[in-house]
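Name: Aminotransferase class V-fold PLP-dependent enzyme
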Amino acid sequence: MYWSKIATTEKEFDAIAALNYETFVEEIPQHQPNSSKRLIDKFHHENVYLIVYKNTEVVGMAAFRDKRPFSIDQKIGNVENHLDPEVCEYLCEIRLLAVKKAHRNGRVFTKLATAIYRYYYDLGYTACVISGTVREEKLYTQMGFKQFAPAVGTQEARYLPMVLTRKDSEVFRERLREQNIVFYPGPVALDHSIAPTAISHRSHKFHQELQDMKQQLCKLAQANHVIPLVGTGTLANDVMLGQLKSEFPQEQGLILVNGEFGNRLKNQAKQWGLHVECLDFGWGNVFDISQIESSIQQGNYHYIIFVHGETSNSTLNPLEPLMELAQKYKVKLCADCISSFAALPFLMEGLHYATAVSGKALGTIAGLAFVFCKDLPSASDAPLYLNLPYYIEKQIPFTLPHFYIKAVSDALKAYPERYIVLEKRMELIKNSSLPVKAMYPMIASWQHEKMPHIIQTCELNGFLLHGDSTYLKELNVAQISTIQPNFEKDYKKVMELISYMMETL
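Structure predicted for Aminotransferase class V-fold PLP-dependent enzyme:
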């Protein structure tokens, strides 16, 4: 397997020095021989090295540097004298492009090129300049480089000043973006296109399809009613909390927290002015049912709010024990089911309100939010767009694109079989060598002290793990979700990369 990464270890830097010697001393007579057969670049401590491995052997490299003067400046004068001003706003130089002779089959150069596009242009460089050997002019041209000044150097080591601009890389970068394999917990990378339609949300056909979708959703969730809105999960939670504010303007509520999204619910509730107390169990810790019951007995709570699937730490919080407590003490139970709905079968019939979305485990386009209701609310003081009774009264009070309805209806056809698919995918993760800490059928968390390097390397090779959120970065955690299409094939590929990567860390 050929794969690329940024060099970080002493072993990798030694392999770079050996390849540098082999290429620029023995093959291209640019430097004098020495007994160590190692060539340390004069800008070594300023370089960022992109290397390509064949399994666990370093077989290719390129060095990047953005401090002036560039080495090419010393050959032709300032490159700004030869390039358009807009190209020169933020330049970097690529040097020491080298591949071992036994691996000059095009695949290593392709890996180098794609890593350049994926990583360095994401840093905002307007162009990369390079002194390309005339022997590989065709290769550089295929990568998108263009000559911008006369050739320089000796007859034995002749070079072409070449540049790769952001503009010239746009098509290739977009192609690479489309080829990325994602493991995000949402949105979902669709395996088919969803085209907008001209069917009006006021038409009879639309109303019929909307009712069919709602019936399917309620059947899957075992809920009495569902209200769709155009928006995100955060919007759905705001709608739920706004309704609770109208129903319990002065009464006390309890929020259960053990992760990032529980904390977000708590903050949203405070913004609504709800009178809530928080029971925080700590990051990723399981809810203590006896402690919750004790709190209910001591407090005068009218409702409880919690996150069912706490994506931030892959924790599935208990539902049935909370339903039993709610029924026992006549408390309304409300749940954020955004990351659990359609990931595993459970019943919402005991929930006063529950929220979900289209773009998570359901496996379709993001953009629809759902509020499930045990009983239809009759009054609300919330703003019109967040006012649940208004949606009930008007049925479709605001524009609801038809393609959302069709996409969700199509996705629902995969159930209940999709539950089994997601469960088998999680078993695949459990049975692999990946040391995951916590999981439920939608997402698994993996902690490692060198996680930033792991995520970066995966990204350079076109595998996007979920690890950019601040709370994940602070804990050195990456997450892999099972909800994306072609998971089985993609997981096998990324695990091959990870296995080689672990040997080189």
